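Technical note accompanying the year-one report. For the benefit of new consortium partners, we illustrate the data format agreed upon in the data management plan: each record pairs a sequence with a C-alpha cell string. No post-processing was applied to the example shown here.
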Amino acid sequence: MPRLPPSYSDFFHSPLTEDVEELLARFQQTDSVRYEAFSAIWRQMCFTDVFIGITGRAEMKRFCRVTLATAVKYFLPPYSYQIRVGGLYLMFGFYHTQPATPPVKIRLDLKDWDQVQKFLKDSVDSGHHDVVYIYQRLVATKAIHYTAMPHFLTFQKQKKPKREPVCAEFLGRTTAVLELISSDLLGELTNIQSQYEKLKEATVEVSGLVTMTHRDFASRLTDCMSGFIVWQQKTFSQDNGGKNPGDDEEKPAESSSSRARLLSSIKHKSYSNFQEAPKFRRHRQAEVVDSSSSGAEQVQETVSGQRKRERPPSLRARTWKSLGVTQEERQLQTWLLSAPEQQERVQRTNKVAPFRR
C-alpha cells in the first residue's frame, strides 16, 4: 500500500499557527512581558491539549518538531520585542509539555545567534529578568540544539520550501523617529541656529551673501517627523487591519494603468523588431494571403518556396562553372567521354555462359 501523506506539513501546520497567533494576540493585548500573564493565557486556552490525538511515536516526534519550529519562528525577527518574548515562552511551554521520549530539542540556527544575543542584552538592560531566566532554563536543560539549518535536510524535498505569511500585527514598528522628537535634539538645533545667525549678523561683509543653512530647519524637521508618525499610525493601525480606506479604490485604477503600460511596451517591442520584406517578394506574400487554401498549406507552400529559392548551387555546378564547361558538354554521357563521337557502342561478344549443373 502507498504511504499516506501526513496530516500536517513538514515545517508548519496551519491550524497550529492560527492557534499560536491567537495566543500571541491575547498576550499582546496585555501590554506586558511577564511570564505570569503568558502562563495565564496558556492555561485559559488549554494549550497543552495540542498533543492529544496522535498515537504513533514517529508522528508524535514529527509534530513536536513542528510545534517547536513554530515557536522559534515568532522568537526571531522581524517581530516586535513583546511577540519575541511570547515566542520564547512558547518554546519553553512546548518543550516541557511534549509527550515525546526522549524530548525533541529546539533547533536554533547559527546564523540567528547574533539576534538572540542582542535580544538577551536588551532584556538585561531593560530589567526583564524573567525573560532571561526562561532562556537560561532552556540552556541549562540542554533543550536547544545549535544547528546549521533550522530544519532537517532530507532528499525529495523542494529546495525553496513554502514560507508562512508574516502576521502584520506582530511586526515591530520603527521608534527612532519618536525618540528623536522626545529628545532635546531639536532644542539644541534651534540654539545652534540662533548662535549662527548672530555670528553672521556680526560680520557685516558676509551677512547677506552667505546662506549655508535654513532658518526654519528645526520647524521643518519637526513637521516631517510628525507627518511620518501620523502616516505610520494610520497605515499600521490595528483597527483597519493595516489598510487605508482609499487603498481598495485606488488599486483597480493602478492595476489597469500598469496593464495598459505593459501592453503598450510589448507592442512597441514587437513593432520595432518587424522587418519589411523586399520589393521582389511582396507580391508573393500578397498571393499567399489571398489564396483560398487552408492556413497550414499556405505556410507549408511559403516555407518550401523559400527553401527552393534560397538553396545555393551544388558543388558540381560550381565546378563546371569554374572550368568553363558549357551546358551541351554537361549533357554528354560519361561512358562516351573517352571514345570518338563517330564510333558506335561496341557490344561484348565474348560472353561466358552461366554455370549449370
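Partners are asked to follow this layout when depositing records. DSSP finds 14 helices and two strands in the chain.
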